[in-house]
Amino acid sequence: MKRLAELTWRDVAVIAARSVLVIPLGATEQHGPHLPFTVDSEVAVALCERLAKARPSVVLAPAVPYGSSGEHARFPGTLSIGQRATELLIVELGRSADAFAGVLFVSGHGGNAVPLRRSVTVLRSEGRRVHAWSPSGPPEDSHAGRTETSALLALRPEAVRLTEAEPGARGALSELMPMLRVGGVAAVSPNGVLGDPAGASRREGLKVLEAWEYELVAAFDRDF
Question: Distances from the Cα of 178 to the Cαs of 24, 68, 75, 113, 202, in angstroms?
């Protein structure tokens, strides 16, 4: 696995033209009373590492730990740079990576979707080979529920406080979206959970990560 953090510019000069730079995009935002602020970043990094191990043409960039998380602003500790800054950040990262054969942004945070989509459109209009991918999940389990809790139990179980896990808003994201747009996550879920972490397990987390890895590798092969 090739990590940009372990290479020099001369190393990159030799391989860049036949390599794809993969950039994990995360967030620093609340994930209920039982999960840490770094869930989205940790998931994005883990999936990118799996991709880098599976495809030797990948060069793994350091993760971007902040994103567009304004919908979680009412929860202390959430750090957001907003949609516009996220979009500009991604565009400039893509522009600066012209030495590589292509760039893949892997986002672990749903709130990055809109600025990421806009950024990719801009970069492609400039003639760059850029793609983006994000993991999917059940619409009624979109934040700090069973899926993400299981994933983190597989990645970093010591960071999960299962004794403090509790259900939050259980409706599908499309049903909750009108209130989310007006008042953020706190308007529909006082504890910050969209879903129910009950039943989460390390075993399920390993299966979730494996499924996401399969989808990511397939997307990479299709696009590059």
Answer: 29, 18, 19, 17, 33
Strand pairing partners for 132?
105
β-pairing, 58-60 vs 2-3, is parallel
Q: Are strands 20-25 and 58-60 parallel, antiparallel or unpaired?
A: parallel
- Output DSSP code: residue 196: -
Structure tokens at 43: 């998931």
Which residue range is the domain that position 56 belongs to? 2-223
Note whether 48 and 135 are within 8 A (CB).
no
pLDDT in 10s for each residue of the chain, 224 residues: 999 999 999 999 999 999 999 999 999 999 999 999 999 999 999 999 999 999 999 999 999 999 999 999 999 999 999 999 999 999 999 999 999 999 999 999 999 999 999 999 999 999 999 999 999 999 999 999 999 999 999 999 999 999 999 999 988 888 888 898 889 999 999 999 999 999 999 999 999 999 999 999 999 999 99
Location of structure tokens 């896990």: 165
The enclosing domain of 163 has a CATH number of 3.40.50.10310
The total number of structural domains in the chain stands at 1
